[in-house]
Amino acid sequence: MKLFMRSHSFSFFVVILFCQLVLGGESATEQASPFPGKKSVWNGFDRYDFQVEQFSVLVVVPKNVAAGKPWVWHGEFFGHKPAPDIALLKKGFHIAYMRVPNMLGSPEAVEHWDLFYRELTEKHGFAKKVALVGLSRGGLYCYNWAAANPEKVASVFGDAPVCDFKSWPGGKGKGKGSKVDWQRVLDRYGFKNEAEALSYKKNPIDNLAPLAKHHIPLLHVYGEADEVVPWDENTGVIASRYRKLGGRIDLIAKPGVKHHPHSLHDAKPIVEFIERNASVGKSRSLPRHRNDPVGIRSATLEPSKKVVYKIVDDHELYLHVFEPDGFQPDDKRSCFLVIHGGGWVGGEPRRMYPFADHFAKKGMVGISLEYRLYNKAKGITVFDCVKDARSAVRFIRSHAQTLGINPQKIIVSGGSAGGHVALGTALFDGVDDPSDPLDVSAVPNVLVPLFPVIDTSPAGYGNKRIGKRWQELSPVDHVKYGLPPTIIFHGTGDTVTPFAGAKKYQELAVKKGNRCELVINKQGRHGYLMFDDKLYLETLKQIEKFLASLE
């Protein structure tokens, strides 16, 4: 019996060992060393350096690989501003880079990239579509490879990218260029002379049709004062031509920023763009409720660009800008700035995209505002919400020339808590960010509050959230002479922000000699015009009529 047990135990051990070596041995080995070459640690993740042909390559491996093995491929300068890569690694993306320096996206470089792509997709099972990241000259690598292989590209993110070698390194436009790298372009591309290079028709700006045909989404982050790779000669041309081809490109502008620093303080927009457009990712879904026509409209709209108007605690705040057809930067258009609601604690700029888009179609520059949301744990208060809106008006006014806006024709609108914040731009003097240019007025030229939080007393809304200082942020307690012309939309059935507050505000404003109209929707609940397409369109016409009466 003992002999049988010992034999049985030994046999069981042999079977387990056999399973580990034969059935599970390959995956265990692959998990321990999925790539050849030198293993090291990069920002807490395993990094492997090896060679494909004679060229050095590297792959950084996530701790938990996402389904489908999505990956990011850098054109140049791997490791610079690594926050997006680190965030994507945490989401299960691999990061890859092939070092082919000084080839500047030439046909030869594209051929070498082809080999690396096959190595990662065929041998290591990476996703067939890759997210490309082109920082500066890396833009030439990414766009040229994408044009040759559009079916293999999930998205392209350009960070102040070179999109035309005539601009850089050629220096044939506003930039100073680079003589050394210009000679490299002539050599690597096989041009007989400079004239042949200047007539070349396959720079990224000239070769966008394959990307548009395959519906490849693009995102560019750029400094508007870029002296090395002028944005208007590169990103600006790409954006204009790609949109004419029917392509989708998102722009994030950094006013006053040169070629450096790259990236964003908060990498979230970059990470979300790459993740959202990964071949294994999920696309934005439409609003759940059918009785939300404004929300359904918003899901299909995208701004012309996003502009950083303020940085707080290493976090960018954006103006989501909708430009009218035929817009030119030296235009002096009216501006319709609209602010989303959500009780100061929720909501997003997209909610008000339909308003910004509508007035852009009417010839204005439409803007939907992003502002800090109330967060007690982080010390963000309703005062900060108001400060951000006042900062935004000051930014628009002081950057009117580059935004193509008439600084004396700024209309500010907003719904619910956004209506409160809109009113605050004109009412709450002294609620200012210390970094603001206080010599620039935060007061708009017209106000259009929609079912606004207008009374923050215990009888109104937000009293407990604001706290003991509620009266400092209560519009009905700050009505004064000389306010901008105002039209308020409110429903009598509003139990969230009671109608009585709007009525009281309008009466006080008129008594003090202000033009203030109140459009009443009988029995209208809070946000009534957002849930009825007919009422929404009717409201837009009423706003238009009011604005026309001011001209």
Structure characterization notes:
This protein is an alpha/beta fold. The radius of gyration is 28 Å and the shape is elongated. Helix 4 packs across helix 5 and helix 13 crosses helix 15. It has 2 domains: 245 residues, 3-Layer(aba) Sandwich (Rossmann fold); 237 residues, 3-Layer(aba) Sandwich (Rossmann fold).
What's the helix and strand layout?
Elements: H1 2-23, H2 25-32, E1 38-42, E2 45-52, E3 55-61, E4 71-74, H3 83-90, E5 94-98, H4 107-123, E6 130-135, H5 138-148, E7 153-159, H6 179-188, H7 194-198, H8 209-213, E8 218-223, H9 235-244, E9 249-254, H10 268-276, H11 293-299, E10 305-312, E11 315-322, E12 333-339, H12 353-361, E13 365-369, H13 382-398, H14 400-403, E14 405-415, H15 417-427, E15 446-450, H16 463-466, E16 486-491, H17 499-511, E17 516-521, H18 533-548
Parallel strand pairs: 4-5, 4-6, 6-7, 7-8, 8-9, 9-10, 12-13, 12-14, 14-15, 15-16, 16-17
Antiparallel strand pairs: 1-2, 2-3, 3-5, 10-11, 11-13
